[in-house]
Write a structure and sequence with these properties.
One of its GO terms (molecular function) is RNA cap binding. It is built from 33 helices and no strands. With about 800 residues, it is an all-alpha fold. The radius of gyration is 33 Å and the shape is globular.
Length: about 800
């Protein structure tokens, strides 16, 4: 008994002891992760003493937690590039204390580099290569093996039949690592490095740059050239070489440990061959470097580095990395940007504002959602109320002055940002500084921009507020009062065809009449498309749509919700009235007619009509490009509607494709299971055969739906591009005939909207390149229009 009791007690004690032991490693692992991730952040002691202390802790934990430490260090190398040199120093200290660990870390990094390249994670791969380079400075990796890796990277430029973007990426990786490691590599391997840079020089000179005009924020090269990213970096590296690789901005904590690190044994990188090009490789698109400021714009305080100094590249790269790491938390992101190391040596606010706008205006699309940049700038203004708002106002003024040469897509993003920003600061702005726009034609970029900004501000406020905040001199640019136009309201219009029926329909809707009763009332509407002696027939009757829809929307004009409810309630009638293409077009014309002073209402109603399948996407495109809408063609909301329509179509296709893939996977799983359970009874087999049959039918139906949706999608793009080509060709012929300059504000807007369609929907459009080339963008097309298509093709070549 006593033995049993004793063993019971032991069991209990053993269990609690076991619980402690299983939770303890987890606690230690979490502590290790926290220590590694937070090193270099706010601390009372110096970075060097923190690193030395952390290296000691990790060395002590290596016997038990080596794999965990390797995993964390590989992850921070990939995901926290802004602290690159801090972590390379840490790895250097660990390598000096434990040579085997250093070797295992290098092997793990190479494995991870191969995986990231295979998974098309090119940004993370870039950070890993840069980390390996900096390990040369920490005496972990031998310089000759790093040069050999670079030579393999640059050899990609000699490959045949590969896209230029592939060679670009490997060259960019080498060049962008040189600010960190160039000096060290040149000291050890100067002949090889000269040969490498000569190869790069040859590549830079022969590469094609057809794509550049499509990606530039400004078409003018003054005051700041908008350089292609590889050209700009090459100029920066050449200047760095000329300055004997002296760089003054990278934090290099390993210098303090030089006496320890130089004693360490170094590792050779295993031979690394870049993975071969595969059809599914998705290389990063080329970019254009955004420039808005130079040293003359920041007259007080530290001088801004020149655009071809490598410091400019390093600062911008680090700021981009901070945004990339913290963009989901605007407060943290703003605080990290403002506590940037070495901030006293540079005009930090100017750099931050330029980098943020550079990302916001990046084409084809920003790295993060547009609204993030607005919230980040608001947060920065709150943290630096004495200085940052002034820099932001200066930037806004500069962009306003350069609107004439600014890309239309970037103007869209600028007005979205500016109106949202103003709404957070009581719409206060020095409007009187912009009175120059009042003397210009209404279709010029400046008055157009101010008008669209006020329109957008009204969406975020209300009409009277906008009237109150803007000086009376701007009255011509203030948006119209967003009232509803109902032509059957005024008794003076009683002679209008359908007036009496409109009154009856209005009463019927108020009295909750059924759909059948309303359709019966509508039968009395005369059809202007039919002669009196024609048979009744069920032809398209535009007046019937006008009478019903005007009356319905008039009764529901109080709010968006009322309008949505009305469309939902009378969906059946609207479907019956729009069973042909003319009907769909006419319903859109009526929506515009009644809400022409309220673009936001038009946008949301068109969106609702597409969602409820009363109109289709092609009808919306045809309506926007129709002569009726020609006077609105350059308005912001028209393109908002068109892009929203294309996105809906794309999502619809993706949804059906996903359903099809899921059904195929399910069938595969069932058949696999059936093979495993083949020894079971016959009736189970019969059931599974029935299930398989049902799934196969479902897959067949979904296959048809996918094909139909893709056909609809292709047709939508054909309609859009065809209309663009027709309008632009007519304009060019008209100008040539009249011997006038074709480059009008309308032409600039139209050609850049064509570019915008290509850029914003490039992934989808690439599927239909063959069709577009055969049917629309043929060699006979005017070269101005064809150039846009060729620029688009060059983005992925």
């Amino acid at each position: 008994m006593s033995r049993r009791r004793h063993s019971d007690g032991d069991d209990d004690g053993g269990q609690s002891h076991k619980r402690r032991r299983t939770s303890e490693p987890i606690e230690i692992e979490d502590r290790l992760e926290s220590l590694i991730c937070r090193v270099g952040e706010k601390s009372t002691s110096s970075l060097e003493s923190n690193l030395e202390g952390l290296a000691g802790v990790l060395e002590a934990d290596l016997p038990n937690y080596k794999n965990k430490i390797l995993r964390i260090l590989c992850a921070v190398a990939r995901l926290l590039p802004e602290k690159l040199t801090v972590y390379t120093t840490l790895v250097g200290l660990l390598n000096a204390r434990n040579y085997n660990f250093g070797g295992e870390f290098v092997e793990a990094m190479i494995r991870q580099l191969k995986e990231t390249l295979k998974a098309n994670l090119y940004t993370e791969a870039l950070y890993l290569v840069r980390f390996l380079c900096d390990l040369v400075n920490c005496h972990v990796i031998a310089a000759p093996s790093m040069v050999a890796m670079f030579e393999n990277f640059v050899s990609v430029t000699q490959e045949e039949d590969v896209p230029q973007v592939r060679s670009d990426w490997f060259v960019y990786v080498v060049l962008s690592s040189l600010p960190w490691v160039g000096k060290e590599l040149y000291e050890k391997k100067d002949v090889e490095m000269d040969r490498l840079l000569n190869q790069i020089d040859g590549y830079i000179k022969r590469r094609l740059k057809t794509h550049v005009p499509m990606l530039q924020v400004w078409t003018a090269e003054k005051p700041h050239p908008q350089e292609e990213y590889l050209d700009c970096l090459w100029a920066q590296i050449q200047k760095l070489k000329k300055d004997r690789w002296q760089e003054r901005h990278i934090l290099r904590p390993y210098i303090a440990f030089d006496s320890v690190l130089c004693e360490a044994l170094q590792h050779n990188l295993p031979p690394f061959t870049p993975p071969a090009h595969m059809p599914d490789c998705q290389y990063p698109m080329p970019r254009v470097i955004f420039r808005m400021f130079d040293y003359t714009d920041a007259p007080e305080g530290p001088v801004m580095p020149g655009s071809h100094s490598v410091e400019r590249f390093v600062i911008e790269d680090n700021l981009h990395n901070i945004i990339k790491s913290h963009w989901k938390e605007r407060k943290t992101c703003a605080a990290q940007l403002l506590s940037y190391p070495g901030k006293n040596k540079i005009p930090l606010n100017y750099h931050i504002v330029e980098v943020i706008f550079g990302e916001l205006f990046q084409l084809p699309c920003p790295p993060h959602i547009d609204v993030m940049y607005t919230t980040l700038l608001i947060e920065l203004c709150k943290l630096q109320p004495g200085s940052l708002p002034q820099v932001l106002a200066q930037a806004t003024e500069m962009m306003y002055m350069r609107l004439d040469t600014m890309n239309t897509t970037c103007i869209d993003r600028l007005l979205n940002w500016f109106s949202h920003h103003l709404s957070n600061f009581q719409f206060r702005w020095s409007w009187d500084d912009w009175t120059d726009c009042l003397a210009l034609d209404a279709d010029k970029p400046k008055p157009k921009f101010v008008k669209e900004v006020l329109e957008k501000c009204m969406r975020l406020s209300y009409h009277q507020r906008i009237v109150d905040i803007v000086p009376p001199t701007f009255s011509a640019l203030i948006p119209a009062d967003p009232i509803f136009f109902y032509k059957y309201q005024d008794e003076a219009n009683s002679a209008l065809p359908g007036f009496a029926v409109a009154i009856t329909v209005g009463n019927a809707i108020k009295n909750r009449a059924s759909n059948e009763e309303i359709l019966t009332v509508l039968k009395d509407v005369p059809n202007p498309n039919q002669e009196d002696d024609d048979d009744e027939g069920e032809g398209f009757n535009p007046l019937k749509i006008e009478v019903f829809l005007q009356t319905l929307l008039h009764l529901a004009a109080k709010s968006f919700s009322h309008s949505f409810s009305a469309l939902a309630k009378f969906h059946e009638i609207l479907k019956a009235l729009t069973d042909c293409d003319e009907g769909k077009l006419h319903i859109l014309r009526v929506v515009y007619e009644v809400w022409r002073n309220h673009p936001q209402m038009i946008s949301v109603l068109v969106d609702k009509l597409i969602r409820t399948q009363i109109v289709d996407c092609a009808a919306v495109a045809n309506w926007l490009f129709s002569p009726n809408m020609a006077h609105e063609f350059t308005r912001f909301y028209v393109w908002e509607i068109l892009h929203s329509t294309i996105r809906k179509m794309n999502k619809h296709v993706q949804k059906i494709q996903k359903e099809l893939e899921e059904a195929k996977d399910k069938l595969e799983r069932q058949q696999h299971k059936k093979q495993k359970d083949s020894g079971d009874e016959e009736d189970m087999e019969k059931n599974s055969e029935d299930e398989d049959g049902q799934l196969e039918e479902q897959i067949e139906r979904l296959q048809e739906k996918v094909e139909s949706a893709q056909s609809e999608q292709k047709n939508l793009f054909l309609v859009i591009f065809q209309r663009f080509i027709m309008m632009l060709t007519e304009h060019l012929v008209r100008c040539e005939t009249g011997s006038v300059d074709f480059s009008t504000p309308w032409y600039k807007n139209c050609i850049e909207r064509l570019q915008q369609i290509f850029l914003m929907h490039h992934v989808t459009i690439q599927q239909y390149m063959g069709t577009l080339e055969n049917l629309l963008f043929t060699a006979e097309l005017d070269h101005h229009i064809l150039a846009v298509y060729q620029q688009f093709c060059a983005l992925q070549l």
